[in-house]
Every structure is written in structure tokens, then in C-alpha cells.
Write a structure and sequence with these properties.
The protein is of the alpha/beta class. The strands form 3 sheets. It has a 6-stranded mixed beta sheet. The protein has a 6-stranded mixed beta sheet with strand order 6-7-8-9-12-13, with helices on one face. Strands 10-11 form a two-stranded antiparallel ribbon. The longest helix has 15 residues. The N and C termini lie far apart (40 Å). The relative contact order is 0.16.
Length: 265
């Protein structure tokens, strides 16, 4: 496909209330005026960003995963966002990639936010995910991953056209959010989408939103403020292909390989 229609939901989340968040997001999705290929929700969209994994985690057979798959089928789109998942005695901040035919892929957040003690509760991911969807290659990452350019790098062995981050990024660091999104778009010569939440969580942390979609030169295609917002935009392949041909910076990068850490010594 020469275009990809992307919808993102910048949402205020109910603290530690998965049922309320599913109901709220269901209503938001039911109000979509046009079809989309990809629908993006924030990080930990069912609970807010929490370290109370023992009380909040769901299995992969749980209601939030089933809800995500049902939404993907209903909207004939991939629906993605991260959820607290329990699996084999560990907890994961897991981005779920639900296709309309029921197939499910996932990415476990690699860079855990030590300032909040995330590394003491959750297991870190070991492998990056690049999904092909309707002819586009997409790399979904989670929040703190934004600060680590090597993990985000548009690498030759797994190239992508769209880089996206789902987040609960606090307002106190909103300048870094905007600056890093632009940097990742420019250095990776890719469309880049950052989807944040708004409101205040149960710990008193405030989130300013600032969700944004940028082109491969770091120009804003969409930037929203601090209110709940649903935004749909269509990306065109031609400008991306033309710019990469005119300015082939990706060909001149240092050679390296992102290892599957499960196989690393």
C-alpha cells in the first residue's frame, strides 16, 4: 500500500481500573469517523504506569488481551498499546500488537525506568519487534526506550518505515519528550509517532500529552496538547522513498548488529 492511515488515542486513564479503561477506550474507538489501518493506545493503557504488578497483571489469556483482539477485529486494523502481563512467574510491560484476524505479536519493554524502580518489578525485553503491516514496516517501542538511540536505530537487518513509542511520559520532562521524538525521526529517516497519556495518576504524577506525529525530516505532521484527543492521519510512502533516495544517510551509518540478547554470551 502506498498509504497507511494511523489513529492514535491520547487518553486520560483510570488509575488501577482495567475495566473502566477498557470501557472508556471502547467508547472512544466507537466514535471513530473513518477507517484506519493502525490504532495506537498509550503505555499501560489499562492501568496507568504502576509498579503494583502483582495486583494488576493479567495473563495473555486475560480480558485486556481479548479486548484488544476484539477491537482489532471490529475496526479491521492493528490495535497496539502496552499492558502489565504475568507470564511464567515474571511480570512484563508488554506492548501487544493485535491483528484483525486474531494473530498477536508482542514486544517487552527493553529499557526499564530505574527512577521508578521498574527494573525491580518487571523483566526487561530481549528482542526488538519490527512488524510488516499492509506493506509498511513498523517498529513499536515503549516510553523510556525513546532515550536510547541504538535500540531505536533503523538497522539494515531490520529496517522500518514508521517508528512508534507508546508512553506514560510525565509533564516534568515534556521538553525531553518532544526533543527526542524529533531526534529519532531525523536520525532514522522515518515517520515517527509518540503517543502519550494525559491527566494525573494515583501517585500525583501529571502527564501533559504532547503526542506527536513527525515526518522523516523531523517536521511535525500533528502535535496535540494536554487534552484527550483522537487523531487520524494518512502517511504517504512516496515522500519517504524520495527523501531517502535524495539523502541516503542510512547508507553511511556505522555497521552494527542488534543482538537477540537471549543468544548473547
Amino acid at each position: 500500500m502506498e498509504t497507511l492511515t494511523v489513529t492514535f488515542l491520547q487518553a486520560e486513564l483510570h488509575w488501577h481500573d482495567a475495566a473502566a479503561n477498557r470501557a472508556h477506550l471502547s467508547q472512544r474507538l466507537s466514535d471513530l469517523a473513518a477507517p484506519s489501518d493502525l490504532i495506537v493506545l498509550p503505555e499501560m493503557f489499562s492501568t496507568g504506569f504502576s509498579m503494583d504488578a502483582p495486583a494488576l497483571a493479567e495473563p495473555m489469556s486475560g480480558p485486556t488481551v481479548a479486548w484488544l483482539q476484539a477491537q482489532a477485529a471490529a475496526h479491521n486494523a492493528v490495535v497496539t498499546g502496552s499492558v502489565i502481563i504475568a507470564e511464567e512467574g515474571r511480570y512484563y510491560n508488554r506492548l501487544l500488537w493485535a491483528r484483525p484476524d486474531g494473530r498477536l505479536s508482542y514486544y517487552d519493554k527493553r529499557h526499564l525506568f530505574t527512577l521508578a524502580g521498574e527494573q525491580h518489578v518487571y523483566a526487561a525485553g530481549r528482542q526488538r519487534l519490527v512488524e510488516e503491516w499492509r506493506g509498511w514496516r513498523i517498529c513499536p517501542l515503549v516510553c523510556y526506550d525513546l532515550r536510547f538511540p541504538v535500540w531505536s536505530r533503523n538497522a539494515a537487518q531490520a529496517p522500518y518505515d514508521l517508528l512508534l513509542y507508546v508512553a506514560n511520559w510525565p509533564a516534568v520532562r515534556r521538553h525531553a519528550w518532544s526533543a527526542l521524538l524529533r531526534a529519532r525521526a531525523i536520525e532514522n529517516v522515518a515517520y515517527t509517532l509518540g503517543v502519550n497519556r494525559v491527566g494525573t495518576d494515583g501517585l500525583g504524577h501529571t502527564y501533559a500529552g504532547d503526542s506527536a506525529l513527525l515526518d522523516m525530516q523531523g517536521h511535525y505532521l500533528v502535535q496535540v496538547g494536554d487534552l484527550e484527543t483522537t487523531m487520524t492521519r494518512t502517511l504517504a510512502r512516496a515522500p519517504l522513498t524520495e527523501f531517502r533516495a535524495q539523502f541516503p544517510v542510512l547508507n553511511d551509518g556505522d555497521e552494527f548488529e542488534l543482538l537477540n540478547l537471549e543468544e548473547a554470551p
